[in-house]
Structure formats: C-alpha cells, structure tokens
Amino acid sequence: KEILEKYHDLFTVQWEGVIGNMHVPSQAEWEQLLTSCSAFLFYGMERFVSHVLLNRLVAMNIPKCHLMILLDLVRSQQSYQRITNSDIHKSCLHIALERPTETAMLLSLTGVGCVVAVQWYTSLQENAERLEILLQNLLSIGRTAGQTVHILQK
Q1: One GO biological process from the UniProt record (predicted)?
Q2: Which of 28, 131, 120, 44 is nearest to 82 (CA)?
Q3: How many CB atoms lie within 10 A of CB 107?
Q4: Region 61-82 average pLDDT
Q5: Nearest to 94 by CA among 103, 81, 85, 107
Q6: What is the pLDDT of residue 23?
Q7: Under a CB-based contact definition with an 8 Å cutoff, are residues 72 and 48 in contact?
Q8: What is d(CA 60, CA 16) in angstroms, rounded to the nearest whole number?
Q9: Could you tell me the residue ranges of all domains in the chain?
Q10: Model-level pTM?
Q11: Closest by alpha carbon to 41, among 146, 151, 145, 141?
Q12: Four-residue CA torsion sign, 109, 49, 68, 147
C-alpha cells in the first residue's frame, strides 16, 4: 500500500482494485478489473491463476491491458493449505497451466500486451523490492517494460 501511494500521483488517480485484506475478490470482480484496466498488478500469495477460474480466464478478451505485473508465488502456511485443498480438485493439466510460463502464454492469448512475472517461489519482501524497482523505472524514470525487466534481472 505504501508503494502504491508513493507512485499514485505519477501515473493516474484512477488506480482501483482490492488492496490488503479488504475482502476476497469474487470471480465477477476479477473479470471486471481485468477487462477494464490498461495495466494490472497482482501482488499476492501463491499462483495468480489459482485465484481466478481458469476456464473463465482463457475465454476473456483483455486487449486493453497493455501491461500485467504478477508478483505472486509467495507461500505461507495458510496459503499453502488453501492451495493444497484447491489443487486436490484440479487435474494435473490444470495445475500445469497455472505455472508462470503457461500463465504468461494464456494471458498473452487473451490479449494482454506484456506480462512481467516471477518464475519461482519468493517472499513478500522480495516482491516488495521488485515492485519498488518496477514502479520507479516504469513511472518515475519512464523506462520501457523491457528495460525495466533487464534491470530486475541484474
């Protein structure tokens, strides 16, 4: 929340969504946010796609979303229990589609222009540092997504 407030005025006053533990977004809320945004940021626990219905996501048309940043793959005891209980009801293929590379491909097929995502499990603190670097370079300095990812790789 601190980071978003820091960069709020540099980009737009129209930032909207769910922050913190306000509530768990419904499927309809996810769909509304995804289809109406020009950029989308997910900063949360476990796999992003585990929070939305995969069959609904692949059927979506999201061409207005030029940039999607997925800072996910953070695990806690509680999130691990939730994902384990959820994965029991999914096929191996479905779970495979929730991996980072497959998620990026699916989002690209729905029309998302650029996907920036982590590839392995990490911590909230590491993702916070990534978010700070991303927003500083994209919004304050005005670098492209490619230039910014290159900086992150260093």
Answers
A1: cilium movement involved in cell motility
A2: 44
A3: 25
A4: 94
A5: 103
A6: 82
A7: yes
A8: 20
A9: 1-153
A10: 0.90
A11: 145
A12: negative
